[in-house]
Specification:
By secondary structure, the chain is mainly beta. Helices cover 0% and strands 49% of the residues. Residues 5-100 form the Rieske domain.
Length: 102
């Protein structure tokens, strides 16, 4: 898909928190890091756990299942056991709305 889709309101995701959404058949998580909204695959590449249930420390997300860590800005794996990075998605803000390109 080459267009932006309205997914959420900025007010739905508190600073330092994440929320999971189902978009176009995908599970996507959106995080709010100091007012910057980042979107990425919502499922861990290791054991398929929901990443929105994990722990954020800045841009580092730790999966609650087995401790795999990802950089949510780039999607790269920072610590095993995740074998592959997660995809990240372009975010656009439109007034109070969060839009994603999936």
């Amino acid at each position: 898909m080459d267009e932006f889709i309205k997914v959420a309101k900025k007010s739905e995701i508190a600073e330092g928190q994440m929320k999971e959404y189902r978009i176009s058949g995908k599970t996507v998580a959106i995080a709010n890091i100091a007012g910057e909204f980042l979107a990425f695959d919502g499922i861990c590449t290791h054991a398929h756990c929901a990443l929105a249930g994990g722990y954020l420390d800045g841009y580092t997300l730790t999966c609650y299942c087995h401790g795999a860590q990802f950089d949510i800005k780039s999607g790269s794996v920072l610590a095993p056991p995740a074998p592959e990075p997660v995809s990240v998605y372009e975010v656009k803000l439109d007034d109070s709305d969060i839009l994603l390109k999936i």
